[in-house]
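Researcher: Let's do a round of design. I'm pasting the structure tokens now; please hold your answer until I've finished.
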């Protein structure tokens, strides 16, 4: 499977008392998915091969 170079982001700590990390959603993805502040995303992870994962992000219906 060929690897496409995509946008890169850096993970940062979400806080002192949590294991959560934060990152920025790249502008190209914001535009493509027509994301807005306050949208909720559902993350689905699938392991393809050692060291390779597929991340699917689904925008939940806006209320």
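Researcher: That's everything. Go ahead.
Model: Designed sequence:
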């Amino acid at each position: 499977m060929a690897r496409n170079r995509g946008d890169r982001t850096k993970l940062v700590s979400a806080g002192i008392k949590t294991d959560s990390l934060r990152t920025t959603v790249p502008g190209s993805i914001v535009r493509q998915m027509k994301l807005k502040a306050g949208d909720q995303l559902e993350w689905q992870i699938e392991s393809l091969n050692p060291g390779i994962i597929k991340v699917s992000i689904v925008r939940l219906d806006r209320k």
